[in-house]
Design a protein that fits this description.
- The protein contains 22 helices and 18 strands.
- Helices cover 35% and strands 15% of the residues.
- The N terminus and C terminus are likely disordered.
- It is an alpha/beta fold.
- The strands form 3 sheets. The chain has a 7-stranded mixed beta sheet, sandwiched between helices. Strands 12-13-15-14-17-18 form a 6-stranded mixed beta sheet, with helices on both faces.
- The longest helix is centred in the first third of the chain and has 22 residues.
- Helix 3 packs across helix 4, helix 5 runs parallel beside helix 6 and helix 13 runs parallel beside helix 15.
Length: 613
């Protein structure tokens, strides 16, 4: 049985002596240990050069070798949850020679990818769904052919609600499935929850604690040292022979075998950029990020407001909550990889007089949309959603781009959405948001934060970032968030061509500011520019609103991302690909001007309607 997708890539390189994972069965114990050393050294050398999810995969080297020794991939599907622990799997299945392209444009994905190999059954990078996939595949297996389906799920991913749905369903079946719990006591940070406590009890052999997995209907094997290849092979062989749902509890160490990772107590180098392989230090000086600005400002707010609490889904440090958690640890709450629980709990906190700030990646918010809609929105709860990694995120690829947040959140009645253009606006809008007695959201990208972009004037609460002084008002550019610099670049190009333009930033982008329609009416054409999907996004809603108010709908266009799965590449490469650079925006403006049915002169904005910011 093979999955219905691409043929396997063949790659020369570090493991050229292996024609595929099936050759692992030919190695003796000493050779298996040498293979682990080679894989780990190759991974460290390549990932420190390209960047990637290093710590988790370093912890699964021996475990993955044992998996491929016992099971026959791809006929025995092996599902990694989450996919950032699968680098050894990629190397053993013929992709080691491509690691210099890891997460680069047209290169190797940072996660399992069906387009790369028949050994990858799922494009897996979001946590907790592997058990559902395992159940679905196992339910269709030809039992006479003695297949096994294996899910390798980290203890952090096991905190997600959908993983528990998988446990209570699989434990009730007689399917020949193996669940390998990769227990390194961490997700990004140390794993929290009663599950973490229970796994620790199992690791210590505390029989009085009982065993959750046997209670749910599984056979249980372990704990086994996941870095002892022979012991892990023995446990997996026993599990495979049972022909029923089995949990193998493998204890591993995140960052294993790389001293800088082992010494990193915060997240064991979960994800890195290009670093010095000897020291683990970044090759380039770190630039302040949007996340850094948010974290510092939230701490400042929390210092003066005791009702402000911060919530996160296993990402305390990646979302910028480190400063507040060190100063106000009792008001920072990590709920594990359980976004639905986080958002519903935030609504509950708001109901008793607190103002929760939920710090979450944009892409992961979609998992909690029901709670945003019905727990936060329906109750009009004063909860602030802070969406990190919004828009195009770059090398993590289609599962991690945060493109749908504005389209989703604008469907929630009463929701107000802010998109800051610069660090000063992020600080300003965050302070405004925690004063609003109803739901709010703030979004910003995964990027170094640029310089502040001051407004030259204001009208109806809208910041005017640029206006041509001695030219007709041909073009209105409505900038959404962090693309303001590209919009200003477009305006400069247009002015050099003799086209007058105005660049505006509403800051609070939803609901639409009524002042937008006055400005649109005073310009010949309007372009909105956003780092999100066009259909249903802010630009799409603006086009719809204009068409409902005026017959001039043809003179407005929304620029953004089409409704498609965006590949991995750098943020700048993808912005260029989707026409969101200054040059491309200017070209679109000229094309729209040339397509106008008449060349009637533009109106003018009376000077007395503009005000200094």
């Amino acid at each position: 049985m093979t999955p219905p997708h691409a043929a396997q890539a063949t790659t020369p390189g570090v493991l050229a002596s292996l024609s595929g994972p099936q050759d692992i069965a030919l190695l003796d114990a000493a050779q298996l240990g040498a293979l682990a050393d080679k894989v780990r050294a190759h991974m460290i050398r390549e990932v420190t050069a390209t960047g990637g999810h290093l710590g988790a995969s370093l912890g699964t080297v021996e475990l993955t070798i044992a998996l491929h020794r016992v099971f026959c991939s791809p006929d025995d599907p092996i599902l990694f949850d989450t996919g950032h622990q699968a680098y050894t799997h990629k190397i053993l299945t013929g992709r080691g020679g491509q690691f210099h392209t890891l997460r680069r444009r047209n290169g190797l994905s940072g996660y399992p990818s069906r387009a790369e190999s028949v050994h990858d059954w799922i494009d897996h990078s979001h946590a907790s769904v592997s058990l559902a996939w395992e159940h679905g595949i196992a339910a269709t297996l030809d039992r006479s052919r003695d297949h096994r389906v294996v899910a390798v799920i980290g203890d952090g991913a096991l905190t997600g609600g959908v993983a528990w749905e998988g446990l209570i369903n699989l434990g009730y079946t007689d399917q020949p499935v193996v669940i390998v719990v990769n227990d390194n006591a961490r997700s990004y940070d140390k794993t929290v929850s009663a599950l973490a406590t229970h796994l620790a009890q199992l690791r210590r052999g505390e029989s009085h604690a009982g065993n959750l997995f046997t209670t749910l209907g599984f056979a249980y094997l372990g704990p086994v040292d996941g870095h002892d290849i022979s012991a892990t092979i023995e446990a997996l062989q026993r599990a495979a022979a049972m022909g029923r749902p089995v949990v193998v509890h493998a204890v591993t160490e995140k960052g294993r075998g790389y001293p800088p990772a082992e010494a990193d107590e915060d997240d064991r180098m979960h994800a890195v950029g290009a670093i010095d392989p000897a020291t683990g230090r970044p090759l380039a000086p770190a630039q302040p990020t949007w996340t850094d600005v948010f974290g510092a400002e939230l701490l400042s707010i929390a210092d003066s407001r005791g009702d402000v609490h911060a919530l996160t889904a296993a990402m305390r440090l990646p979302t910028g909550l480190g400063p507040m958690s060190r100063t106000h640890p009792d008001r920072v709450h990590d709920f594990g990889i359980a976004e639905q629980h986080v958002v519903a709990a935030a609504a509950a906190m708001a109901s008793v007089g607190r103002h929760p700030v939920v710090a979450i990646y944009s892409t992961f918010l979609a998992r909690a949309f029901d709670q945003v809609h019905l727990d936060v929105g329906m109750h009009q709860a004063p909860v602030t959603l802070v969406l990190d990694r919004a828009g195009i995120t770059g090398p993590d690829g289609p599962s991690h781009h945060g493109l749908s947040d504005m389209a989703l959140l604008s469907c929630v009645p009463g929701m107000q959405i802010a998109a800051p253009r610069d660090p000063a606006r992020l600080r300003e809008l965050l302070r405004e948001a925690v004063e609003i007695p109803s739901p709010t959201a703030i979004r910003y990208p995964k990027a170094a934060v640029g310089e502040n972009i001051p407004a030259v004037a204001q009208i109806d609460g809208i910041d005017i970032l640029f206006r041509s002084a001695h030219l007709p008002l041909d073009v209105l550019i409505v900038s959404v968030g962090a693309l303001a610099d590209q919009c200003l670049r477009a305006a400069a190009i247009l002015e050099a061509k003799g086209c007058g333009s105005t660049v505006i930033d509403a800051k609070w982008v939803w609901p639409l500011n009524p002042g937008l329609f006055t400005l649109i009416a005073r310009h010949r054409i309007t372009l909105s520019v956003e780092d999100g999907i066009v259909n249903g996004g802010i630009g799409g809603r603006l086009v719809q609103a204009v068409s409902e108010r005026s017959p001039r709908a043809a003179a407005i266009r929304a620029l953004g991302i089409p409704t498609e799965y965006v590949p991995h590449a750098t943020r700048s490469q993808l912005l260029a690909h989707y026409g969101l650079t200054g040059e491309a925006i200017a070209t679109d403006c000229v094309a729209l001007l040339e397509a106008l049915p008449d060349q009637s002169p533009a109106g003018s904005v009376p000077a007395d309607t503009w005000s200094a910011p």
